[in-house]
Amino acid sequence: IDREKILDIKNLHFSYGPIKALDNLSLHVHKGEIVALLGANGAGKTTLLQTISGLNSADSGEIIFKDESITKLSAEKIVQRHLIHVPEHRQVFSTMSVLDNLHLGAYHHYQKTKKKNVVQEIEKLFEIFPILEERKDQLAGTLSGGQQQMLAIARAIMSKPDLLLLDEPSLGLAPIVVKEVLELVKNLRDQYNTTVLLIEQNVFASLKISDRAYVIQHGEIVKEGSAQELLRDENVKEAFLGHA
Ligand code: ATP
Question: Which segments constitute the ABC transporter domain (predicted)?
Answer without folding.
Answer: 7-243
